[in-house]
User: Fold this.
Amino acid sequence: MSRVITESIATTSMISPENSELFESITSDLSEKGYSVNQNALPQHLSLQLLDQLHVMSRKEFDTAGIGRQQDHTVDNSVRTDEICWIDGSSEAGEKWLAWSSELREYLNSQLFLGLFSFESHFAHYGPGDFYKRHLDAFKGESARLLSLVVYLNPDWETEDKGELVLYRDVHDSTGIKVSPTFGTVVAFLSEDFPHEVLPAKRDRYSIAGWYRLNNSIGNRIDPPR
Ligand code: OGA
Ligand code: MN
Assistant:
């Protein structure tokens, strides 16, 4: 019986076969616990293309990461020391990544009725010793960021290389769940509910961090930019 129901839902949302297992697991994890960790999960051709893109990008394309939006934007290297590069569709890899994240958005909307509207994301480079202290990606009522998505692009990453993402289940949790940033790992979590941090690594560490937003119109402008 449940099999029949699953199949009928699957046919109503457009999803490519290579994504179905991952998208289903993100969906059930989010509805059960609000976060999802999936190792070796991003389609390999996409991870490899994103890695190639990182290799052709020069250091100049990365900017020191800041905190906050527009006027409130500040660079504070006691909080984070990584450098970032926002992803637009100008490279083939960027375009494929945006298409993939949009397929995930549509799937989540069809299954969980989240009303996710737009997506913004950046490459991040953490050099050895770089960190991002415990933080929330969104504060209730202040931002339209609903869901955070992080993928890792570090081939041959070993546990001793450190650089874990630590996800805390709530404000009181001081232990957290440690995620090693291995190639192709996909993490999703509700932005307002999970404080998290990036621990220093021994090697260069690359990730993409992205946020799905609700439609947040300000002064007649639909979903204004950051
Ligand atoms: C962020 C972030 C996590 C990571 O950029 O907000 O939390 O593991 N990144 O790179
Ligand atoms: Mn974050």
The radius of gyration is 17 Å. The pocket of N-oxalylglycine (ligand 1) is lined by residues 124, 132, 137, 150, 165, 196, 198, 207, 209 (CB under 6 Å). The helical segments are 2-12, 17-33, 44-56, 92-112. The chain has a mean pLDDT of 88.
